[in-house]
Amino acid sequence: MRFVTALLALLLATAGAAPALELQSIANAAAGYQSANPHLQQMFRAALLDTGKLAEMAPDGTAYVKTGDIPAEWLRDSSAQVRPYLYYAKEDPTTRDLLRAIIARQAKYIQIDPYANAFTLDYHVWEEKFELDSLAYPITLAWSYWHVTGDTSIFTVDEAKAFDAILATMEKEQDHPRNSRYVHKELQDGRGRPVAYTGMIWTGFRPSDDACYYNYLIPSEMFAVVALGDMAQIEREVYHNLIKAHEAQSLRDEVQRGIQRFGMVPVSKYGYIYAYEVDGLGHAILTDDANVPSLLSAPYMGYMPDTDRYYLNTRAFLLSQDNPSYYTGNVARGIGSYHTPDHWIWPLALVMQGLTASTQTEKQDVLNQLLASDPGDHLLHESFDPNDPKRFTRPDFGWPNALFSEFVMTSFQGVGQIPMGDTSDLEFINE
Fold it and tell me: Which residues 6+ apart lie within 8 Å of 129 measured at CB?
């Protein structure tokens, strides 16, 4: 069924496809990339240009970024898809204009429905799956853009209203059973399984768009901590709204305490590790999903350094056969998702392993697997059979290609990673 759905979406998307945006700095960077490995050269160029093929300017001055072969924009995907273009925004006004227009559209989407995760070009809700990370991503994109360019023009009245909607929704979902009216047919009894109050924020769905089993999704809680810190800084330094800054900071601290109190469990072979989902009642799921935020991606998000002892314990578990979502094949080995065929690997997770690797040997190993996953079109896809990469899902999926661009730039070209936030003041358990 997923293959039929993807094919139908591809036909719909192709029928109304807009021409690729002309971004000279991006085109020059792609054309100028040289590698002794011609396969890598082809894949990097294709990956870097991919977002420009999926983005289009709208009549209202905003910009729309579809996810690929599905004719809709996900708040999460669009934020990640344009992230490599931040590297060119400071010097290139055209790229800067595009990013400003994307941020402006996201602000409008959030005001329409902060519980929705995806929207259409004409501002209709595509899906109303409440995913906590969908509220975090636009904040971190705006914060990163500001810190890269110094441009505060994105912080409009619309953006302030979007921030207000995000903060109000997060605060409401801290106590979902008592305060929330959100329901969805894919959740148990429409409202999800029982949870205790933890200070963390309830979420209905994972970044994979699959329903949570336990509704405190630790990777998304981590990302919310980063985003709320960003919001507090923006409110304080740009909008000069000290009340909102304090409100965001207080929520950030409450979520962080909840993660540290409820989000880790002891495992005899690894020590304390972060769980994937918990309910605050003593139940936990120990796994990870390829979609980001993931536990594997915690340092990439800026939540913690990659030297954190509990992250290293967690990483060792995640990249082992003890993790039920870790799969191996003749061509590749890595983390998959319950969203796609069993034992298939996601390039997103492979790229994230490379981005969080501490040695160049591991980074090169990951790169080799990614190159080997190319089915012949020089693009990365949603998932693939690790024994036969010509079997894959989603013929056109922008997110992993954007992340691959970033991986090559930061791991093999010496380009510094653009931060998503500053969490240097966070308090962690150090027992």
Answer: 116, 117, 118, 184, 186, 204, 205, 209
One DSSP character per residue, 313-344 reads HHHHHHTSTTSTTEEE-SS-EEE--TTSSTTP
Whether residue 241 lies inside any domain: the answer is yes
Contact 286, 273 (CB under 8 A): yes
Residue 103 contacts residue 157 (beta carbons within 8 Å):
no
**In the beta sheet, which residues pair with residue 217?**
277
Q: What is the CATH classification number for the domain harbouring 303?
A: 1.50.10.10
Look at residue 102 and tell me if it is in a domain: yes
SS3 285: strand
- Tell me whether residue 9 is in a domain: no
Residue 323 belongs to a domain: yes
Each residue's pLDDT tens digit, 237-270 = 999 999 999 999 999 999 999 999 999 999 999 9
When divided into structural domains, the chain yields a total of 1
**Strand pairing of 333-335 and 326-328?**
antiparallel
Q: How far apart are CA 376 and CA 148, in angstroms?
A: 35
Percent of the chain at pLDDT above 90? 94
Q: Which two tokens stand for residue 407?
A: 């991986």
C-alpha 409/C-alpha 431 separation (Å) is: 36
Cβ density class 272-307: b for 16+ within 10 Å, e for less? ebbbbbbbbeeebbbbbbbbbbbbbbbbbbbbbeee
Residue 340 pLDDT > 60, yes or no? yes
pLDDT tens profile 386-431: 999 999 999 999 999 999 999 999 999 999 999 999 999 999 976 5
Cβ atoms 278, 284 nearer than 8 A: yes
DSSP state of 390: E
d(CA 238, CA 53): 33
Range of the domain at 121: 40-412
For residue 368, pLDDT beyond 80: yes
* Contact yes or no for 25/95 (Cβ under 8 A): yes
Rounded CA separation 98/119 (Å): 18
Residues 16, 18, 19, 20, CA torsion sign: negative
Torsions phi, psi for 74 (to 5 deg): -90, 135
Q: Provide mean pLDDT across the span 105-125.
A: 98
pTM for this one? 0.95
Q: Which residues pair with 265 in a beta bridge?
A: 273
Dist. CA 148–CA 85, nearest whole Å: 11
